[in-house]
Amino acid sequence: MFAKQELNIKLLHLRPRVFEGWNLPPRMPVHLPNSESDSVGNYNRLSASQVNAWKACPRLWFYEKVRRLVMPQIPILFVGRAVEEAICQTLKESPCLVIASAPSDVYAPTPLDEEGRPNREHGGSWPADQLLSLPEKYWPQSKNDLLEWATERVKIHLKGSLDDMKKEWGKHDRKAGQWEDVDVERCHMMAKNGIQMHIDEVEKCLTSITEPMLQAWRNGDRPQWPAPDGRGFELDQHPLAQDGKVTWFEAWEVARPWFVDPDAKPFMMNSVHPEHWFQGEYDLVYCWDGNVRIIDIKASLGNNDRSGDYVEQLRMYAFLWWHTHDKQQEVEGLEIWYLAANSQKMVKKPTIDEMEEMGIELKGLWSQLREITPDIDQCPPQPAPMRSFEPGGIPSEQPVKQTRCERCDWSLICPNGTGHDEHPEGGTYQLPGSYSEIEGDPINKLEDRHDITGHVHTLIHSQSGGAPRITITQANNAFADVQVKAMTHSDGTPTVPDGLEKGDLVRVENAFFQLNYKGAIVLKVDPFSKIIKIERDEEVTMSLLKPRARWNIMGTVVYRTEKRGTSARGEWCRKGLMILDNTGAIKVEGWQADWGPQYDMLDLGDTVIITNVGMNGWAAITTGEIYRASRLHIVSD
Fold first, then answer.
1. Is residue 87 in a domain?
2. Domain tally for the chain?
3. Does 285 share its domain with 179?
4. What is the tens place of the pLDDT at every residue in 292-327?
């Protein structure tokens, strides 16, 4: 039944077909940055969540976006993602190809390009092409048939999504709560409510789609970024097209909203402002009738302060859509689906004048927050009042019992809570039992990356196409192991040059400088690093023996982290501390046995000094690494 289907589908990849019957611009919800003119970069754009965090409290934004503190990861945060993913997996499928009881992986994975997006150049068959159509007796003939099929499918997908999210939650070093407290039946209810809302949309399509729109779909007309359905970007004719009046299963196909393909890599399907300083990712975009409506899915009741943020987020998305479509197309509708309340909240769309004003405000906020990073004094602890909502996101006049500061994750360190802004900034400390003083290093003075020049001494290419093994050497007979952890730089270029050979003179740029547990030098290449071949007359930029590899970090303990797992050697545990001083914050982590007894004695808010800390990290995140020679000391509580 699920054998490869012989379909005469001609895939065209050189041009997007004009979306004739629907009169929509071809870009649709995805608008990628222009690498030649993007001076902002992926890690420095503004987002709706950042804007809402700033408006809730500037100090909250500072702690999370500048100091990079991570809130406790409770299961409900992952449950919402599981429910949304299950709904999208169901929307991706076709009731004419998949029986209700089929396994969740009946569709093969979507072919992706090197960036992790659906591959526009894929010339082979697509997942839906590999399935034979079911016998017509299985095709839904009514709304109830379609609802029964989709409800069963979303239940099957939800089980897998919850399992995946449980694993992801379990791997997080800031996980909190108990996964056993997750109410699976409530998750089923929310997923079913989302499916019901979509089926109502299918019914609208069935009863009101125009003949030109229907014919355009039957002819295979698709936008540049079609709604994920397991098929390619171009079709000569849709394989499920019928004659005459639209059918229920055709309405399912036509009404399918755009959403991020569940197989795509995270953050690869964003819509980026043409000037690159703002970005967002839509949940659902309906456009089957030529009118664009953006839907935000929330696996919640909508009866808390965040319901106000969701409204503002959708209004910013309307602004983003307008700008990424050359100010020629406005969003016609904005909705929030509160799945736990089984409620659809309509949000008033902004006018053109309001979007113009929004653009000025957001651009100014980007300049204030991201173009130049503000210091803590520019981010005062001035929380906005808490807002009250009834289920379904309905504004309420009921007083809120809890203040924003009382529910804040950072009240321990914030002056509006029980904390203060007077943290260490380096300095000396006399360790008990020691005759010498320890000099603490301010966090903003830690040097983690360096440019190192040397000759390629060893080059072993991977047989599987992975990262090569490289060592470099300098004239002083110093060696370094170059560990290539990323093959692609953040600018899209390779981190290892083509044609690299033994004996080449290279510069390893912006690499993490480390000493391993044996004391050997390691240069770690991540997405912010690269290896460049240089001319032989270029002088060595830095001796391998010069960079400092160990540091003494002193600060206030904000929270603990912990990861556990099992390897071939048995069970393992890595623990860590988030340390804050007046200049920055850094997570220091290491194997449980290397922390010593004082780790279990300290309390959050204590001042500590950790000696002999190495530098590690990934991309924009720098971390500290403790070793057997590292020591943790509680300075004050």
1. yes
2. 3
3. yes
4. 999 999 999 999 999 999 999 999 999 999 999 999
